[in-house]
Specification:
This protein has 424 residues and is an alpha+beta fold. It is built from twelve helices and 22 strands.
Length: 424
Amino acid sequence: MKVLIVGGGGREHAIAWKAVQSPRVEKLYCAPGNAGIAQVAECVDIGVMDFDAQVAFAKEHGIDLVIVGPDDPLAAGAVDAFEAAGIRAFGPRKNAAILEGSKAFSKDLMKKYNIPTAGYETFDSPEKALAYIEHAPMPIVLKADGLALGKGVLICNTREEAKDGVKTLMLDKQFGSAGDRIVVEEFMTGREVSVLSFVDGKTIKIMTSAQDHKRAKDGDQGLNTGGMGTFSPSPFYTEEVDSFCRNYIYQPTVDAMRAEGREFQGIIFFGLMLTEQGPKVLEYNARFGDPETQVVLPRMKNDIMDVFEACVDGTLDQVELEFEDNAAVCVVLASAGYPEHYEKGYKMTGFENFKDKDGYYVFHAGSKFDAEGNIVTNGGRVLGVTAKGATLKEARENAYKATEWIEFGNKYMRHDIGKAIDEA
């Protein structure tokens, strides 16, 4: 089969790497891709939001299945555009991608269907939000309603911070129209766990757990980022937690979307908080997490094309997901200064060190070829270095060892990814 992946980040590199292992894939394209994806797929210079060009390309090249990676095109109706042209696509339609596309929608859905989550209020008016904050208990969480590259969540410890946060989101429009409406949420404490799942509209199959590190600096300091590293599985995601989530969170979410006439086909990523009162939903994403995908897919035994097709065909109940009984850790190599100001265009070396090394991977997020054909940095998050091990500690040791194999001018990383492993 001929396959097109839409996207150009570390998540899409991991998906492409997994897809080419399938004997069923005869040709793989990626739009727009990056310098790493170019090693496993033919990259096509079409932007992720250019649906017309994507559809035209898919028709012209006889594409059998399209896999849409990022949140923006999904929320804007990429899957609908392909389906309207008679092309099979993996991912939620626009009316289902709202699960991630609107925080207010997802909170209202959870409230209506009794899915455990933090208490909240939604505001369209900054004045009303500020008035509410005057009397709300601190700390408090402010969330932009719309998509904000994973950075639209502000944790405010004081009223002053909360007021500044309302100003940032609603008046200064730091995330544009995503902040026209905000959700103000009670602050939950506990362990955070991410759980990825495949969904075909009715059936949900859970992959494995992972834990992300959102803050830019060691010790969970600094600004929120798209994610600086992750590990899988989470030692805190016990059988007891799993069984609770299956009964009260996972299947109920899929059923709720169906009941609302928004049947969900694709990936649901559950961001969970393990509180003293039990697991609660922090957020939903309607696609593979980044960098969670870079630790989950290397541990997956299935032919991923079989699973993608089962989701599109509505036959996921016939698939059993299988994962290796091991662990993986991913450390993101970023450009110094990310997520604020950083320079691009630094030459990277050392990729040959990963050749023929079983259990070591380098997934490209922000990379491209320069005029001379060198691989250079082209983003805030540049690479994800993933390593497997028999245990989480071994995987972490291997991942940090492998970060030394790659060099570039403004290389920056956190040195405490997986610190929580020692607390388990």
